[in-house]
Design goal:
Blueprint lengths: L1 E9 L28 H12 L1 E7 H9 L11 H8 L2 E4 L11 E4 L3 H10 L4 E5 L2 H9 L5 E7 L19 E8 L5 E7 L12
Amino acid sequence: MKLMTTTQVSVDGVMQGPGGPGEDERGVFERGGWAHFDQEAGKVMDEIFRRADAFLFGRRTYEIFAGSWGTWKDPGDSPIWTALHTKPKYVASTTLTDPQWTNTTVLSGDVAAAVRELKAKPGRELQVQGSGALIRWLLDNQLVDEITLFTFPVVVGQGTRLFPDTGPDLALDLVDSRATPKGITIQVYRLAGHPQYATAAAP
C-alpha cells in the first residue's frame, strides 16, 4: 500500500480546527470552522475515501473522528462513513489504551516498523487524514508516498500549521491539481527526494 496523507489547510498553512468551533482549541485557538466544502471538493474527498484500504491516525485526530463519524448512524450514502466503519484503523499513540471504535489497533511500540509492515501489505492506500504531528513524524522518517492538500481560500492568521518552522526539506512532483467553483484548490504531490538549490552566479 502507498501511504497517502490528506490535509485541509488555509492559504497561510493552518490545519488546526478546520471543521468547526471546539474541534481543536489547543493554544486558545478561537478560529475553528474555516474549511467550507463545496460540492466538487466533497466529491473529491469521497473519491479519496473510496480508495482507502486502511487508515492511520494520530491520537487527537482519531478521537475527533471517533467522537463524530464513529457515533453517527449510517446515512446510507456516505463513502466516508462506509470506509471509516469497514476498513481497519490504526492509531499511533503511547497513551491510548482502550479504543472504543471497532476495528481499531493501537500502534504503541516501534511505530516506524509497524507502518512499514502496513505499507508492505497488498492494497491501494494506507491513508492519513489530518493528524498533523503524525504527518510531520512520517515525513521525518521518509514514510510518506503522496500528499494531498485541500487549500481553502482563507487566511486564518493563527493556529498550528502543517509544516513547522524547521523540518526536512522535500522535493515534490505535482501529480494532479484542480480548483473548485468556490476557490478550493486540490493538489496531489509525490515525494521526490531532496530539493536542488540554485547557486548565485555572476551575470
